[in-house]
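Dear colleagues,

As part of the handover before I leave the project, I'm documenting each prediction I ran so the next person doesn't have to rerun anything. This entry is a single chain, and its sequence is reproduced below.
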Amino acid sequence: MGIQQLQDVTLVRHAYVRTSSQKQGIGGHLLSHLRELAGGPILIGTWAAAVWAIHFYERHGFQMVGPQEKDRLLKRYWTIPERQMDTSVVLADPKWWQLSVEA
């Protein structure tokens, strides 16, 4: 896993655990460590079809943002083609949700 500080958020980038090492808590430990490093709100973009990844992040407190917010966030923080935007989702951690409620 890697992170990218970008403007006012941290993006989790390229998060993978070797298939033979999955279901052992490694991904959760890595994500926890990255959350400590980030300090502030975290966003994760992934493919909508990557249901296993979405469920992993949801189990760790992330929630998917709505379609309009997803498009806004993808345009602000990522540089991806329109086609990829259509097939992507964005998940946000509790810190992001708290800040979005306060704004």
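The radius of gyration is 13 Å. The longest strand covers residues 42-47.

All the best with the project,
I.
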